[in-house]
Amino acid sequence: MSVRELVVLGTASQVPTRHRNHNGYLLRWDGEGILFDPGEGTQRQMLRAGVAAHDIHRICVTHFHGDHSLGLAGVIQRINLDRVPHEVTAHYPRSGQRFFDRLRHATAYRETVTLTEAPVAADGVLVATPAYTLEARRLSHPVESYGYRLTEPDGRRMLPERLAAHGITGPDVGRLQREGSLNGVPLEAVSEVRRGQRFAFVMDTRLCEGVHALAEGCDLLVIESTFLDQDEELAVEFGHLTAGQAARAARDAGVRHLVLTHFSQRYAQPEEFERQARAAGFEGELTVARDLQRVPVPKRR
Ligand SMILES: [Zn+2]
Questions:
Q1: 86 is in an annotated binding site
Q2: Is 65 annotated as a binding residue?
Q3: What is the CA(103)–ligand 1 centre distance, in A?
Q4: Three-class SS state of 17
């Protein structure tokens, strides 16, 4: 069975705490793993969460602040140490190429794995596979930052009662799916659109067009909420979101499951993020992320 879930490796902004590691998130999407924003300590968090280097096929870095990227050095070396049998592709803002170069070659090690560099320089599609299309959108932060969005292509769900009404059974169903029609019965008459699932990763940013575009219609949205609403001025100044801002954006975008993360160490009460997100009118499923938590992509409607 295919697994689609988020494994939370770390949830702290800027400074880790006793209970929160720096950022790190692995999205399992069928047979593939996408590692987002590996901060310092990600390699050890992977071990604690049961994530292996072999599970990583793609790495997406939103921006080159340490809490989102200092873990690259360790993770890349571990991928090579473990001789991961597949190619790994890395996406990150092209303007930070010199940081990526340094992290990739921070110390000596034996390179055994093909690591493809696919930097991002503008909004748009990065890759399209049968399982998903991955795109990037510019965010608003003091250093160049991109959010990422995964969209599964729409499929079709066969409707048994309609098939039966047309007397289509057995191998003819497969033929109809392949050929688009059978004995004058078009595929559309016996099936309906199955909407592809959508996931987005939004970090670090002020409210901007990119936030709304990334969040639109997401089944699962991971978004930073560094601050609580009473510190909105700080959020705007430093290029971050509050719990209320993130939740309103998710509400307006029709998000089904909202994951808040990237918390400032100044707050000791995670419940307050939940309270403010609800007060902002978000009514879907809500997770105030904890390290090592697993969040399944919601079941199809
Ligand atoms: Zn950050």
A1: no
A2: yes
A3: 17
A4: coil
Q: For residue 245, which phi and psi values (nearest 5 degrees)?
A: -65, -45
Of 93, 92, 55, the C-alpha closest to 75 is: 55
- Is 101 in the active site? no
Sketch out the chain's domains with CATH numbers.
4-154+195-296 (3.60.15.10), 156-191 (no CATH)
Catalytic annotation, pick one of 30, 55, 67, 252: 67
CA of 138 to the centre of ligand 1 (A): 15
- Binding site annotation covers 166? no
The rounded Å distance from CA 204 to ligand 1 centre is 6
**Contact between 168 and 203 (Cβ < 8 Å):** no
Mean pLDDT of 54-68: 98
Compute, in angstroms, the gap from residue 13 CA to the centroid of ligand 1. 5
Amino acid identity, position 136: A
- pLDDT at site 185: 93
- The strand ranges marked E within the chain are 4-10, 24-29, 32-36, 58-60, 88-91, 115-117, 124-128, 133-138, 146-151, 155-158, 181-182, 185-186, 191-194, 198-202, 220-224, 257-261, 285-288, 294-296
Task: Locate 269 and state its tokens.
Answer: 């009460």
Does 63 show up as a binding residue in the annotation? yes
- Look at residue 264 and tell me whether its pLDDT is greater than 80: yes
What is the reported pTM?
0.94
Rounded to 10 degrees, the C-alpha dihedral 178/179/182/188 comes to 80
Confidence (pLDDT) at 1: 53
The SS3 of residue 260 is strand
Percent of the chain with pLDDT over 70: 100
30 phi-psi bin (left φ>0, alpha ψ -120 to 50, beta other): left
| pLDDT tens for each residue of 108-123 | 999 999 999 999 999 9
What single-letter amino acid sits at 21?
Answer: N
Q: Per-residue pLDDT tens for 189-232?
A: 999 999 999 999 999 999 999 999 999 999 999 999 999 999 99
